[in-house]
TrEMBL record:
Organism lineage string: Bacteria, Bacillati, Actinomycetota, Actinomycetes, Streptosporangiales
Pfam families recorded: Acyl_transf_3 (PF01757)
Residue ranges of every copy of the Acyltransferase domain listed in the record: 15-352
Residues of the signal peptide: none
UniProt keyword Transferase present: yes
Keywords: Membrane, Transferase, Transmembrane, Transmembrane helix
Protein name: Fucose 4-O-acetylase-like acetyltransferase
InterPro entries: Acyl_transf_3_dom, Glucan_succinyl_AcylTrfase
Transmembrane segments: 21-45, 51-76, 97-115, 127-149, 169-186, 206-221, 233-257, 269-290, 311-331, 337-355
Keyword Transmembrane helix found: yes
Organism: Nonomuraea rubra
A GO MF term: acyltransferase activity, transferring groups other than amino-acyl groups
């Protein structure tokens, strides 16, 4: 009997695993930077000790935000079709609800209030929330939408097998343009920094990027794009990101520190063109780099890969605890950031192992 290739697990993409490890590490460092930026966006914050330190942290955060969560959604979208093909709709959704839904519910109703416990403690209803696990909530929504799409198109004839080839340049440019316009339009209603109740996304103004990258990942799986990313494509992506930073970013900032955030301003259009171009270019460059230079894993790499999601779930506690522990130390912001980053990142991965060995936890994390 002939085996349906869509039900067979594809070969492991070590470079994609390694990229996911790097992105998870960047999430930890991003939240350490938020903690010392003075922005009221973390469970514990400190104002920067100098304007220069605050500016460097702000630039770090803005550049990260422009692309790194989009990269997470691209990787998630890439591995979604194969998982759906192997398990079918019911088992696929059940697996997603277990692997994503349980950590989200526990964090939302139990761990988030613990992180908000201060002096005085916040009321319980004010303390609940998804926190960093807004990403998990978004993935659940996207997985449900993907399942609905597959069920709605189940009777369509299966498309012919295509030879794997990278996306053509006009397709990449059209994707960037559509993404920029969609982002610009949303930011008329939801400027950067707008918090949406219930949904609890800290970056709702990036929703077009997250949805588009997830969809692009699913298409990339079908067309074999990850297998065809070349160093030349990586350099093209680097050029796109650098060119957008030289052309669009100064135009966005020329209107003032507030104008780029949205509300239909010309500066917000240029900023949407910058972050859309930068995100696509940076992800292309990193995919090419990791595929050509980091397409393998030893024992350490396999450990880090297996525990990356656990690190994502637990890192808020480790980062916050480290910040509180150093709260009374009168060090300059750069020194505190460097120390906390150097301690919390390995600590998160070290703690992830024992946590996953707890009874029943490995099934979820």
């Amino acid at each position: 009997m002939k085996t349906d290739p869509r039900t067979v697990a594809p070969p492991r993409l070590w470079f994609a695993d390694n990229l996911r490890i790097a992105l998870t590490s960047l999430v930890v460092l991003h939240h350490v930077a938020v903690m010392y930026s003075g922005l009221p966006l973390w469970y514990y914050t400190e104002p920067p000790t100098s304007a220069a330190a605050g500016a460097v942290l702000a630039i770090f955060l803005v550049v990260n935000q422009a692309w790194f969560m989009g990269a997470f959604f691209l990787l998630s979208g890439y591995f979604t079709p194969g998982s759906y093909d192997r398990k079918g709709p019911a088992a696929f959704l059940r697996d997603r609800l277990v692997r994503l839904g349980i950590p989200l519910i526990v964090f939302y109703f139990v761990l988030s209030p613990l992180l908000h416990a201060g002096s005085p403690p916040e009321p319980y209803l004010d303390a609940i929330g998804s926190g960093p696990l807004w990403f998990v909530l978004a993935l659940l929504v996207f997985d449900a939408c993907y399942t609905a799409f597959r069920l709605a198109t189940a009777r369509r004839p299966r498309p012919r097998e295509r030879a794997a080839r990278p996306p053509a340049l006009p397709m990449v440019i059209a994707f960037v343009a559509a993404l920029a316009l969609g982002t610009y339009a949303l930011r008329i209603v939801l400027p950067a920094g707008t918090w949406v109740p219930i949904v609890d996304f800290p970056t709702s103004s990036y929703l077009p990027q997250y949805a588009a990258f997830f969809a692009a990942g699913a298409v990339a799986y079908r067309r074999g794009w990850f297998h065809t990313v070349t160093p030349r494509a990586g350099w093209a992506g680097f050029g796109l990101a650098a060119g957008a930073s030289v052309v669009f970013l100064p135009l966005a900032l020329a209107g003032g520190l507030e104008a780029w955030m949205g509300r239909g301003t010309l500066s917000s259009l240029f900023f949407a063109l910058w972050d859309s171009s930068f995100a696509v270019g940076a992800v292309l460059a990193l995919l090419a780099f990791f595929r050509s230079r980091l397409d393998g894993q030893g024992p350490l790499g396999r450990y880090l890969s297996a525990h990356a999601f656990t690190v994502y779930v637990i890192h808020a506690f480790v980062v916050t605890a480290a910040g509180l522990a150093l709260g009374a130390v009168a060090w300059p912001t750069p020194a505190k950031f460097a120390l906390v980053a150097a301690v919390t990142l390995p600590a998160c991965f070290a703690l992830a192992g024992p946590i996953r060995r707890l009874p029943g936890v490995r099934r979820v994390l």
